[in-house]
């Protein structure tokens, strides 16, 4: 499987799960990264091109980077219904997905031995924000020492400073399983927009114990604490489904691309965090 496919697969699953008509799906062409002399060229062609580009870069260097969609405005959406269905339902809303397309960025020379993660990700985000693709994104570092690329709409009527996981929550929780903590989080953080669970490691979450807390935390920091307690390295994607006006939270293993003995690329999970 191509190294950028995790986020694209989850994007497709969100569309399929929320569509009420058969065979509607989001196209998911891969992203690519090419090193040529002093240039590191990243290209993506997808409904969420930044998520695709982030996937291929993060797996190239073994980085854990989380991604959050904005609430896309109507002008940042396109109809992805299959032509046969559209012909039979010309007046129906159909499947709406972000209106992304081709995204290209030259990130310059990146050290192969000690790449500066923050610098590379900032260049990627800056290049994306200079494109005509939907959404405006910001790189943030959480108190859990995780990097996250957080989105907001480009619509003039939308705020560029807040996102659903910026919300602060104070839940006096007891010790609980990771799955219970995750479900509690999505319930408390969905103040204005519903949050549904997408692809998550339910078994592992159920077997992981999360310590209770009484502090005032952002939803993002609370999620970071849950992921930090897990026995494997995980990243999350928060995708916005335009049709249902809901978020879908997916948690997937973080990978790195290595070259196998046959000279081909292999995706391997990042080593588990130190106990």
Features of this protein?
three-stranded antiparallel β-sheet, 17 strands, globular, six-stranded mixed β-sheet, alpha+beta, 275 residues
Structure explained in plain terms:
The chain has a domain at 5-159 and 233-257. Helix content is 27%, strand content 28%. The protein has helices at residues 5-18, 49-61, 83-88, 117-129, 178-189, 202-206, 219-228; strands at residues 32-36, 39-45, 65-68, 77-79, 96-98, 102-106, 136-141, 147-152, 168-169, 176-177, 195-197, 209-210, 217-218, 234-241, 246-253, 255-259, 265-269. It has a six-stranded mixed β-sheet, with helices on both faces. A three-stranded antiparallel β-sheet has the order 1-2-6, with helices on one face. Helix 5 (178-189) runs antiparallel to helix 7 (219-228). The longest helix has 14 residues, at 5-18.
Number of DSSP E strands: 17
Model regions low in confidence, pLDDT < 50 over at least 5 residues: 11-29
Secondary structure category: alpha+beta
Mean pLDDT: 85
Number of helices: 7
- Please give the share of residues in helix: 25-40%
Q: Strands of the biggest beta sheet: in what spatial order?
A: 7-8-3-14-15-11
Cα-atom Rg, whole angstroms? Answer: 19 Å
What percentage of amino acids are in beta strands?
Answer: 25-35%
Biggest pleated sheet? 6 strands, mixed
Give the termini distance in whole angstroms. Answer: 30 Å
* Helix-strand sequence: HEEHEEHEEHEEEEHEHEEHEEEE
Backbone shape: globular
């Amino acid at each position: 499987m191509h190294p950028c496919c995790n986020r694209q697969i989850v994007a497709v699953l969100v569309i399929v799960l929320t569509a009420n008509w058969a065979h509607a799906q989001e196209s998911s062409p891969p992203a690519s990264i090419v090193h040529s002399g002093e240039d590191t060229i990243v290209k993506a062609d997808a409904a969420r091109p930044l998520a695709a580009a982030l996937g291929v870069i993060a797996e190239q260097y073994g980085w854990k980077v989380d991604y959050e969609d904005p609430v896309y405005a109507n002008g940042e959406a396109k109809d992805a219904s299959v032509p046969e269905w559209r012909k039979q339902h010309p007046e129906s809303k159909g499947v709406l997905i972000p209106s992304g397309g081709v995204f290209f960025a030259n990130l310059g020379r990146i050290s192969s031995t000690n790449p500066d993660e923050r610098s590379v990700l900032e260049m990627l985000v800056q290049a994306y924000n200079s494109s005509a693709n939907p959404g405006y994104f910001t790189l943030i570092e959480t108190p859990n020492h995780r990097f996250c690329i957080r989105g907001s709409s480009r619509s003039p009527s939308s705020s560029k400073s807040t996102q659903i996981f910026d919300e602060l929550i104070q839940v006096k929780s007891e010790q609980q399983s990771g799955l219970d903590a995750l479900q509690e989080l999505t319930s408390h953080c969905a103040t204005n927009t519903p949050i549904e669970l997408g692809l998550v490691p339910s078994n592992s979450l159920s077997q992981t114990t999360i310590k209770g807390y009484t502090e005032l935390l952002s939803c993002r920091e609370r999620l970071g604490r849950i992921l930090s307690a897990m026995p494997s390295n995980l990243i999350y994607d928060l995708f916005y489904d335009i049709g249902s006006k809901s978020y879908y939270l997916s948690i997937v293993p973080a990978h790195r691309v290595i070259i196998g003995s046959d000279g081909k690329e292999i995706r391997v999970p990042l080593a588990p965090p130190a106990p």
